[in-house]
Here is the input.
Amino acid sequence: MKADFIINPAEVEYMDKIFDSFQLELSEFDHMEDVELEELITGFSFFSTETKEYAKKLFMEMAECDGYVDPREMELIQTIIGIC
Here is the structure.
């Protein structure tokens, strides 16, 4: 995850699989670099508990896929999704 300022190839591969499974195109997310953290938190606040849990699972898998979960990654995940 970018929270640790490193985007590992394993993380890119993981996201490619997620995009494929949801039939998403990377270009659909081009605007995400311009989204502020507060906007993400607000958006996630409207999700159901089930959706938050699923998103947390995906974020955790991405954080773990490079073999090391940086504490900054955990902090970002908890900040965005909140304590589910």
Summary: Residues 49-64 form the longest helix (16 residues). The chain has a mean pLDDT of 87. The chain has four helices and no strands. The CA atoms of residues 52 and 75 lie 15 Å apart.
